[in-house]
Amino acid sequence: MNRLNEIAKLAGVSRQEAEDVLHEYESNVSEISRTRIMQAAESLQYRVPKLSSKPAEKEYSIALAVLDDSSDELENPFIAALRKYAEVYCLKQGIHIREIIRRENISDSKRMADVDGVLVIGRVQDGDSEAIEKVSRQSVVLTDWDGGAEGDVVSIDLHQMTELVISHLKEMGHEKIGYIGAPNWGETLKDELMKAGLLSEEHLYLTDPHGTEGYRIMKEASQSGSLANAYIVQSSVMSLAAITALREEGKRIPEEVSIVSFYDVPEAHYFAPSLTTLHVSAEEMAKAALSLLTDKMTNHRDTPLKMLVPATMKMRESTASK
Predict the structure, then answer these.
(1) What is the pTM of this model?
(2) Is the pLDDT confidence value at 74 over 60?
């Protein structure tokens, strides 16, 4: 099977649709299908044409609302990657970022006559949507958790991610599967584990998604003798901390405990062992969000659109069959 057929199959589209998108031919392929095609191409390491740097016909100015503070960006490299790619493609498309809004000053934000729209990056909390609307009615949320978001949203497909990783671990023979991470993701994972008949609540740790928590929890679980066969950990930072704790307790990875991280980062190859991850393209998400925002700014579309971007597994050395 040639690469285009593989990409089409993985993305759930026709070969012609995959070819049209990858070679930038004119087509009526939806934004959701385009994102799936680009995600599939990236996962199969298919060389795709670079996005044209031709500016948009109209020069737009936007505000960039970054709703995770600096410490969250350090703990969650995925949010930092979303921002990086958003800024890159704003530059390529001639979209000027006129204002940066942070959570600490969002309540002071006022409508800006020279801003055409707002790109929101991060997790929307109560009151954020009202504050953003004061800046501009044209906005798109780019996030890894869409629980509080309204209007146009581009987010990871959390249900698909959890189904995928649980299915892989189950096929590898793991029956005791744990989780370390934020409660909102944990509740979704809990539901999927229940559906799979693998729920062991004593192995689920719903906590702040910080590296120190990954270390503390895995250290305590090791010392108490209550380790699961495999753990799904919310971030690469927490995964590294968990691996460090297991090693200090003399546990072998992956022979005794397998580790999977929800976030794929370039450094995952250099972990020891290299880290099995769930990969979602931050670049494609940022491009899709800017496409939706440009559409809203141009056409003043009222109908909200929601795009969930699927994940692929990156199997590395931190997981093994039981």
Answers:
(1) 0.78
(2) no
